[in-house]
Design goal:
Chain lengths: 623, 120, 517
């Protein structure tokens, strides 16, 4: 089966192509084809895994060379797939959770007239994401990286009739470009330093590279990871991305795409292992985002945005984990997989709640839904127990290992992860209480009801993963030794012992949960968000001023620059149009005004240019 | 080198002196009767610039004629150096010059067929 | 007269195989003038189209013949250099011209006829104009002009001395000045563009000619190889040579549209008939960059250090001007014009880098850009309202719903211009940037990457507009074109993808493309 691994990508890609090119003719069965392609890809993944299990640990890595992409001089980039323990884990997560979400979407999008297109984009996403994780070099990874960005952009803006969705899509796109600059810089640096961009060769060459080179590459890769994984300071797009349909939020913006940054850093472990400065930067970014996301999560009344804040925070854990080096790689990836299960499950649960509540996302209008939506309540509850880290649910095992590894690095990082765990318990309890407990605060014409089977069954499967996934991976699949050949593994030394740490962690979690419970389940939740709140709550509601920050640092200077240049250029439309989406409003009158370009002023500019050029040449000549 | 430059210089001086002499002698000896036609440039009956009353654009025919003149002018310019070194260029030069003339003739044919030679 | 005054003139040896592509195209142009003169008006248009297409195909076969038989060397007293680069560029120019000819021949999308004025001598808005239009006349001289211009383009990048370079520049440009001013719709805009292009073009030609004179004063020769020799032989820096070299570069930089000599680009691209804009943006860019690369690699490499500061400044300004002002555009053709300026800036990296990899990258980049640009302008010509092309970006809103196929194809071209992977634009950009990086031009590469990211914004803005914005209510429609335009769009789209997915054959082709020195 390994030889047919290209089918993994080809199947969903073919699905996307048929659905996009087939047009309306495929409306009737498009969603079924899309789901079948995703399931087919999952099947190939499982078959590949079985084949891989039969081999010894050293033989499991296989490179499947498809064709030569670019050969220029010494520079050689193949299109080749790398099948190893790391990529196959991702393949199964992507196609497995992806297939469940395809199935869920059949019901969720049943009444959407563009359902076929939705499935086409989903298939496109699956294909691109698989390219990202199966690539055996950074260039091909870049293709997948851009591909998932495109699919994410298309899906966030799927409901184009909502201006907020279009704006959110654009924002995601622009912020991700900032991150992409990092990836392209990293690729070029690697090429200059090592003469290759293949994972294997880069990792081999990195061992003898200078610390300085590795640090720069590491920082550039971190910038890329920040963009894709919504880490500080490029986090702001993720909250807005919740404008997309909920299955998209579950698949792309919780379980898979946003974890690509973690994958990127884990793949580049050889570079980080020799670049302590870059590693520290990774830990700092992860720590900041971990706390930031959690705080944002405490203040959101929108159930999806609350979950989005939580996603940021959990990815912060993973980024922090991969920053710890060999003691953390395996557990960060472990947490990535368990998180994929429970967060996707909770997002689907949120979608199910919205389905029953006329697409209302405000948790202040929920309450006491456990009676009306029993299955959703139960599955969401499993996810809840998993994320706050109650044993034996999945999140407990993975998060506990990260906390232990963090303590072995330094007490400070350990405490940050502990505080994060406490806040997580608080906001998740708040979400649980506001949605499923307390008194019903439903709007007048809303009659909550349980969702159809096609939606609840994927939720149930994911909740099983949330419950037992952690134990299965840790004790049955033995994830430490499974991933060790790829990313390396060391046992954590130093720091407090498990017998101390686990009770402490659980106590902090319990305190957080109690506070949430007392505040939101025992007391009445006001229908409107209180306005007389502390500045901290205000800051959290405003996403900790992430947008304000971006505006001040990235957007304003850009706009000023554009405007002043436009003024110099003297013949373009008003500055008002710059950077805004509403170009529609500009009319023909302004078109005429663009024609005030006088040929004499052009000639003058040319002469001035000649003079300046002459001056530069003269100065250089003298120097 | 000097022996070649001196006659050319002399010729230039003579030409310049003649021009100055003609203008000067005419203004001294000639009768002084003024009318409107005398102050027109070139005295050929065409107003050089569009006039506010009864004037207008210069007929495009003048432009066409001038263009046609330039075409043949250029041809003659190229014929001179060829003629001077005809001996050393031989058949090759003859053939190339023939091609050159033929292509200019194509232009002439185009102008002729398009009515560029008809004045009215 | 003493024989010492007449230089010893001998008949030059001419290799007609090497000249074949140029002779065929120029011969076709002369024939086309005869067709103008002697063919009856009714069948003139179809005869011209047949003649032009045949000429170009035969000329392409002639280029292939040179390639296959590897007939390389100098000819006509070293004034033309036929080498690997020449063959690639000539082939590329002829293919661009073929696609351009298909676009120019289009007469279905406008109910009044093709994209050119029925009789361009008629005053805009006059009764004469109306009469000619109603008679259904075509201005068939465009075909002769087109072929002459292609002839100039074929000579420009292979000229091995400064005089031939200058003559080729004029042969290429003069017909283009006319073609730019002959649009059927918005004639005043078109004529204004033509005049601007002409005046500024003449201005830049003057710089180039003056520069050639100065260089001749330094090197005692106008041959590129001799200039290089003179440069390496002279120990001290010569200001004469430096100023001359800069002036020649200015003439070339004007043609490629580099800042601060770029300002004609948006006006001309906007005013010209779109088919001509398409042809110019591909053909002129390829020819001018070919010439720039040759002059810089062959003649001026000895000046590289003295010129580096100047070229760095020009490259940076060009990239930034192209992308940042491009963001503020509301006219699709102007936006593509600024995009072309930005691409000129990216390509300058390949000129500055001076290595085999940079040369390969630049040539590949040119090939990718030529087809993408042709395709993008072809699509622009299809989106129309009652008064002609709907060039205002606002009118493109919601196009994705009305015409998903055209909107998707345009998206492909935009992605290629933005340099997204799996398109030709990405591979070209990557090859040029990587080569520049290897030569230690890291700061330039960083600026280029940032500029690409900014440029990505304005391409994506159009995609957003087409797919995610509701139509403004204007009566804008996508016209179903004739076979010619459909074929042109298909060819360019396929090339854009194929060069992005399997670029290797082209790089193989380029592996022995070197300049003859």
């Amino acid at each position: 089966m390994t030889a047919y691994a290209w089918l993994l990508v080809a199947l969903p890609l073919a699905g996307a192509a048929v659905l996009l090119l087939g047009g309306k003719r495929t409306n009737a069965w498009g969603h079924l084809l899309g789901t079948a392609m995703s399931l087919g890809s999952f099947g190939v993944g499982v078959a590949t895994l079985i084949e891989m299990l039969a081999k010894t640990a050293e033989e499991r890595e296989t490179i499947i060379h498809l064709w030569d992409w670019i050969v220029v001089g010494t520079f050689h980039v193949p299109v080749a797939l790398q099948l190893d323990q790391l990529s196959i884990s991702f393949v199964l997560l992507i196609t497995g959770v992806g297939s469940l979400i395809h199935i869920y979407s059949i019901g969720y999008m049943a009444h959407d007239e563009n359902r076929r297109k939705f499935f086409a984009y989903l298939n496109l996403f699956i294909a691109a994401m698989l390219v990202l994780v199966l690539a055996n070099n950074y260039m091909l990874l870049y293709v997948g990286w851009e591909g998932v960005g495109l699919a994410s952009y298309l899906l966030i803006g799927f409901w184009i009739h909502k201006p907020s969705a279009a704006t959110a899509a654009k924002k995601a796109f622009v912020v991700n470009r900032v991150g992409d600059v990092g990836l392209s810089l990293a690729v070029m640096l690697m090429f200059t330093a090592f003469g290759t961009v293949t994972f294997g060769e880069v990792n081999a060459a990195a061992e003898s590279a200078s610390t300085q080179t590795a640090t720069w590459i590491g920082l550039a890769l971190l910038l890329a990871a920040c963009g894709k994984s919504a880490q500080f300071p490029l986090q702001s797009w993720l909250l807005d991305a919740m404008e997309g349909p909920t299955p998209v939020s579950a698949l792309i913006h919780a379980a898979t795409m946003v974890t690509a940054g973690v994958y990127l850093i884990a793949r580049s472990h050889a570079i980080y292992d020799i670049a302590p400065i870059a590693q520290t930067a990774v830990i700092v970014i992860g720590g900041i985002t971990l706390i930031m996301g959690a705080i944002i999560g405490t203040a959101k009344d929108d159930i999806k945005k609350g979950l989005a804040g939580s996603t940021m925070s959990q990815i912060g854990y993973m980024i922090l984990g991969v920053g710890l080096g060999p003691v953390g790689y395996v557990f960060a990836l472990f947490h990535l997989i368990t998180h994929g299960f429970f967060k996707a499950g909770m997002f689907l649960g949120a979608g199910s709640v919205m389905h029953g509540m006329h697409d209302d996302v405000n948790m202040r209008h929920y309450g006491n839904l456990r009676t009306a939506m029993k299955i959703t309540y139960a599955t969401f509850g499993m996810g809840f127990l998993a994320i706050i880290g109650i044993p034996p649910f999945a999140g407990f095992w993975s998060k506990d290992e990260i906390i232990r590894a963090a303590f072995s690095h330094s007490p400070l990082t350990g405490i940050v992860t502990l505080i994060g765990a406490g806040i997580t318990a608080f906001y998740m309890t708040r979400m649980m209480a506001m949605t499923f407990f307390g008194t019903a605060r439903w709007q007048d014409d809303v009659h909550p009801h349980e969702s159809p089977k096609s939606m609840t069954i994927p939720m149930m499967i994911l909740s099983i993963g949330s419950a037992f996934g952690g134990m299965l991976l840790l004790f049955v699949a033995n994830i430490e030794s499974w991933l060790e050949p790829v990313v390396g593994f060391e046992h954590a030394h130093g720091g407090p012992d498990s017998s101390v740490l686990i009770p402490v962690t659980l106590t902090i979690v319990a305190i957080g949960a109690m506070m949430g419970w007392v505040q939101y389940a025992k007391r009445e939740v006001p229908l409107l968000a209180p306005t007389d709140v502390s500045i901290f709550t205000k800051a959290a509601r405003a996403d900790l001023y992430g947008d304000t920050f971006n505006e001040a640092v990235f957007m304003r200077p850009g706009q000023y620059l554009t405007r002043s240049l436009v003024y110099v250029d003297n013949k373009v439309v008003d500055g008002v149009v710059n950077g805004t989406a509403g170009l529609v409003g500009v009319v023909a009158a302004q078109l005429r005004r663009t024609q005030t370009g006088f040929v004499r002023s052009y000639a003058l500019v040319m002469v001035l240019g000649v003079v300046v050029i002459g001056a530069i040449a003269a100065i250089v000549g003298m120097a | 080198m000097n022996n070649v430059a001196i006659p050319i210089l002399a010729l230039g001086l003579i030409a310049g002196a003649f021009a100055v002499f003609s203008v000067a002698i005419a203004s001294i000896t000639g009768p002084k009767r003024y009318n409107r036609a005398r102050v027109d440039a070139y005295e050929c009956g065409i107003e050089p610039t569009p006039q506010p009353m009864g004037g207008g654009r210069i007929p495009v025919k003048y432009y066409l004629t001038a263009m046609l003149f330039i075409v043949f002018d250029i041809e003659i310019v190229f014929l001179y150096p060829w003629a001077v070194s005809f001996d050393s260029l031989g058949i090759f030069g003859l053939f190339e010059m023939f091609l050159f003339s033929a292509s200019v003739l194509v232009v002439y044919a185009y102008v002729w067929r398009r009515g560029g030679l008809e004045w009215d | 007269m003493s024989s010492a005054l007449i230089a010893d003139i001998t008949a030059p040896s001419v290799n007609y195989y090497m000249l074949a592509p140029i002779l065929i195209v120029l011969g076709g142009a002369v024939l086309s003038v005869l067709v103008e003169a002697f063919y009856p008006r009714e069948s003139r248009r179809s005869a011209q189209i047949a003649l032009v297409l045949t000429t170009l195909v035969v000329a392409f076969l002639a280029v292939l013949n040179i390639k296959v038989d590897a007939i390389l060397g100098f000819t006509i007293v070293n004034s033309l250099a036929i080498d690997g680069v020449s063959v690639f560029l000539q082939g590329l120019i002829i293919l661009s011209a073929l696609v351009g000819a298909l676009l120019i021949s289009e007469n279905r999308i406008d109910p009044l006829g093709d994209a050119f004025a029925a009789q361009s001598s008629a005053l805009p808005g006059s009764e004469d104009e109306l009469a000619f239009t109603e008679r259904g006349w075509y201005q068939t001289e465009i075909w002769s002009l087109f072929l002459f211009s292609v002839g100039g383009m074929l000579i420009f990048p292979i000229a091995n001395d400064l005089l031939t370079l200058f003559v080729a520049l004029e042969v290429m440009s003069l017909p283009l000045y006319l073609l730019v001013g002959m649009a059927r719709r918005r004639r005043l805009l078109s004529q204004e563009a033509a005049l601007k292009y002409f005046v500024l073009g003449a201005f830049s030609s003057a710089f180039m000619l003056y520069g050639s004179a100065l260089v001749y004063g330094f090197a005692n020769s106008v041959e590129l190889g001799d200039i290089a020799k003179a440069l390496s032989a002279s120990a001290a820096n010569s200001n004469l040579m430096l100023v001359g070299g800069i002036f020649i570069l200015i003439g070339l930089l004007f043609k490629v549209g580099a800042a601060p000599f770029h300002q004609w680009t948006p006006d001309v691209y906007q005013g010209a008939p779109t088919a001509i804009t398409a042809f110019m943006s591909a053909g002129t860019k390829v020819a001018a960059f070919g010439a720039l690369l040759r002059v810089f690699y062959v003649a001026l490499s000895g000046l590289a250090w003295d010129l580096s500061a100047v070229l760095w400044a020009i490259a940076i300004i060009t990239m930034l001007v192209g992308t940042i002002i491009g963001v503020a555009q509301s006219d699709i053709k102007r936006m593509l014009a600024y995009s072309s300026i930005a691409h000129a800036g990216f390509l300058l990296l390949g000129v500055i880098a001076q290595s085999k990899a940079a040369l390969d990258g630049s040539l590949f980049y040119l090939a990718g850009y030529a087809f993408t640009s042709l395709g993008a302008f072809a699509v622009v010509s299809l989106v129309r309202d009652a008064s002609g092309e709907a060039n205002h970006l606002g009118q493109w809103a919601g196009l994705g719903k009305r015409s998903p196929v055209i909107a998707s194809v345009f998206t492909l071209f935009l992605l290629a211009l933005a340099g997204i992977p799996l398109t030709s634009g990405f591979v070209g950009k990557f090859a040029v940037f990587a080569a520049a990086y290897e030569k230690g031009l890291a700061p330039l590469v960083v600026v280029a990457v940032i500029a690409s990211a900014i440029a990505g914004f304005f391409y994506v803005r159009v995609i957003v507009l087409m797919f995610f914005t509701d139509a403004s209510g204007d009566e804008v429609s996508v016209v179903v074109p004739s076979f010619a335009t459909a074929a042109a769009i298909t060819i360019t789209a396929v090339v854009t993808i194929v060069l992005g997915v399997i670029p290797q054959p082209v790089f193989d082709l380029l592996s022995n493309a070197l300049f003859l020195k």
